[in-house]
Write a structure and sequence with these properties.
single chain; mainly beta; SH3 type barrels; five-stranded antiparallel beta sheet
């Protein structure tokens, strides 16, 4: 494995709810909140917000590329659980033992 990076977390948080398009006034309010759960690497642990990302560049880089980034205001967080402490950055694959991406592999479209 590579160098240790960020903790892996699961966050339960409350999101806003909005109707889509024009609606009658008596149907404009939602009777419930929208509780969500997100899992990712905790890349920022700020005083008023946290930021997680779902995908991290697998190769060793001083500043890796990330994707699936989401910032959640702390006031909306119900629970934050550390799933794993600092997670090792994966080593780049040296071979393709499962044959992923090869013709006939399970994930490719027929």
């Amino acid at each position: 494995m590579g160098e240790a990076r960020w903790p892996l977390v699961r966050i339960t948080w409350v999101d806003s709810v909005a109707p889509h398009g024009w609606v009658a006034l008596d149907k404009a309010t939602s009777p419930h909140d929208l509780t969500c759960e997100s899992v990712g690497w905790l890349i920022e642990d700020g005083e008023d917000r946290v930021t997680i990302c779902a995908h991290v560049q697998a190769t060793a880089a001083a500043t890796p590329f990330v994707d699936g980034v989401m910032t959640i205001p702390r006031r909306g967080i119900v629970q934050l659980i550390v799933i794993a402490g600092l997670v090792d950055a994966p080593e780049p694959p040296r071979s393709n033992p499962l044959g992923l991406g090869s013709p006939g592999s399970a994930w490719m479209a027929a």
